[in-house]
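Hi support team,

I'm opening this ticket because the web form for multi-chain structure prediction keeps timing out on my end. I have pasted the exact lines I submitted so you can reproduce it. The total is 626 residues across two entries, so I didn't expect it to be a heavy job. Is there a limit I'm missing, or should I split the entries? Thanks in advance, R.K.
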Amino acid sequence: MNIQSMEPSTVGAGRTPTPPLLEKNRSGKHMDNEQMPTKMSAKGLDVFYNGKQALFGVDLDIPEQAVTALIGPSGCGKSTFLRCLNRMNDTIDGCDVKGDVTIDGQNIYDRELDVVELRARIGMVFQKPNPFPKSIYENVAYGPRIHGLSDDRQELDEIVQTSLDRAGWMNLAPAFLAASSNGSASPALSRSARKLS
Amino acid sequence: MTESTASSRSVREKVRARQGKRYSAERRFRLLGVTSIVIAVSALLLLLGSMIVKGSSAFVQTHLLLEITLPAEELAPNGKPDAKAMADANYTAFIRRALAKKFSDVRSRRDKRSLYKLISEGASIRLQKLVAASPDMIGTTVPFAAKASDDVDQYFKGKLPKGQTGRLSAKQTKWVETLREAGEIETRFNTAFFTNGDSREPELAGIWGAMMGSLLAMAVTLVLSFPLGVAAAIYLEEFAPRNRWTDLIEVNINNLAAVPSIVFGLLGLAVFLNFFGMPRSAPLVGGMVLALMTLPTVIIAGRAALGAVPPSIREAALGVGASPMQVVLHHVLPLAMPGILTGTIIGAARALGETAPLLMIGMVAFIVDIPGSITDPATALPVQIFLWADSPERAFVERTAAATLVLLAFLIVMNLLAVILRKRFERRW
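Hello R.K., no limit was hit. The queue was backed up. Here is the completed structure from your submission:
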């Protein structure tokens, strides 16, 4: 696996290992890779699918406030590694995870750790789109609702609106928010968005 | 390029040569499919048709149109309608007087008795109810449609073989023909069929008692088998570990679905009636036995429906941080609901038509009263059909077919409901 820490603006451009670039964090200050604290790290990670080994002793530190990209040919274990980070591999029968994965120094495979809370903290975006067969609003509001972030309708509206803004669906937000309150589909919704509702 | 043109031409020729055979094979296959459908539908139509032909006459009942005098001195002795007098009065005598007046030439006692046999025993009860409902009729002569006996009914409807008069004597036949010519005998809608319980007299027998028994048993079955079955399916499909024990359970459940229904009846007899001492012939016990029968069907259909939900939905929910129970309740179960409902309704429809297990637990008795609760003795519709099929009176032949039609109608409605519910709950994405 070829591992590189990259600047967000150059995602997808890595082909050959480049000399360490000066990193800009969100506040605009220049920082070195080595100065970024490690958010998550894997040590000696072995993953077995029904006895067949898929990952062989992976050691990786993932720094904070940066985009880390995993590049490799298909079937080399990228998804397997990613799924180890939020314990999604627990749902697969016959999948065995050995080794350490830590977030902020805490081992996430600790028996006492609440998996649900972990997944609320470490989100996951899937390769293929898999929205719930509900309205867009419900899709976005589901997470906050089940974690008890808000029960108030107005607060949820705000959370949903902010999330959609951040995802770049600003033009969509007012249209369907109006729809969600009066229940009718707005003609301003694009076709793909209509499919999601 | 030239070599390939030559070879591609021979390829084209070969393809064209084979096409004829392929199309005729296609046609044969289609014909086979159409033929099978035609055979199946014909068998169904034959069954339905024979039932309709035999049973449609049961929906009408012969009545004699009489003019009945309601004497005030017997019903309202003090000038006012008296409840006790109205209850005790001999309504049969009123009907007989009216009939005798119509056939004034009938003198001898024997002949008169023969004449009175034309009327059903239930006619007097109906007259009593009529008088109780409108007491202002007392002292007047009212037109009244008296229910004819089942022998007259079968003869009048033309159900007897050519030339035969069944149990009617020559004189009785003559009287009926006289009435027919005068237009004073006719068939009316047989409401008693739908409102009465079972009876020894065919003209008074109805399916309502059996229907109530069936409906109550069905209610018990659904209340027991649906929650248990769905919960079991959810556990087995979503939460249970995959090991030898769960494999064993799965094999056993699949086998239970194939067990002959009479075995469940024997189980009900041995455990529910003998060991637990529950009331015999009660819809409660019938419902429990049928629930045991329906449970495997619900579990199997439930597991299939849950398994058909794409794992991407589960992953998406887990990725957002939903707990396993929330994943199932909020996402998987709603998507699996159409399949689960279909399986449940099909299982319930099968249970509605089952006779053998109910025979074993006693829902086969001759029960006249309409059951009021799940612990009252009752019978069920398929059992009622079975009992009537065995009865000697000719009039029960058409009633058996009519009851079968009612049962079939119910099954069709339930299956239609399954289709509609499935369509309504189906989610597309």
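A quick check on our side: The interface with chain B takes residues 86, 88, 91, 93, 116-121, 123-124, 126, 128, 130-133, 142-143, 146-147, 195-196 of chain A (CB under 8 Å). Let us know if the file doesn't open in your viewer.
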